[in-house]
Amino acid sequence: xxxRVVIARLLPSLSPTLAELALMLVSDRIVLADRTRWSRKxxxxxxxxxxxxxxxWIRVGVRTEDRRRPVAEVRPDPxxxxxxxxxxxxxxxxxxxxxxxxxxxxxxxxxxxVAAAAERGEPVLPHLLGFRGFLLSRLHLSGxxxxxxxxxxxARSEPKAGSSIEPHPVLTAPGxxxxxxxxxxxxxxxxxxxPHPSRPAGFQAWDSALDLLLTLGPDSWTVTDRLPEALQVPxxxxxxxxxxxxxxxxxxxPEEES
Length: 258
Description:
The chain is α/β, with parallel strands linked by helices. It is about 30% helix and about 15% strand.
């Protein structure tokens, strides 16, 4: 119905996956579920990179005593071994690429800022969002995405927070149910690989925006522009802005220009 807002409910993280990025591009509102309990197996504080042999991870270490807390409350580990490992892994996977020297030093600087926050006992979340914002700006997506709001802020501003989410279509990313509870009626999207000459199997749902940036640099648009068409959302309605509609195959697709 006209006026309904499509919401992408995602886990706050260092880097969105490509499936999450696709949801962000087709939604009217992005809600980050920062009250979700932290898990070392989720991508809240770790990011995947695709090497020639396998998928590897860089991560922000979390204090042992915080590991049962919500993502909004965990603090980074002051032991900097995680930072050294992250810098070394970035070099190992991407140092031979065309864009490593352009982006990697700034990315490591932002990880160093997280390590400094650990020494002050600050929560990791603002730094996750800063790192994430840097990636999106370098992918030239900042102006194309709706604003992100933390679920905890939503609850404070609207005490009956359910009323601000539940009446609207809520989209969630593939596999996210392993790490976060979904609202009743939420729809989990499916994602088809995006073909590209640099990846024989295509860019996958779980590939990270960080990996995309370091692989393709300013040519990342050749993948990001195709993300919405890689997304399948069963039974989805159009967005309030009218940018998307449901095809006969029940896939969310861009409206054709008139």
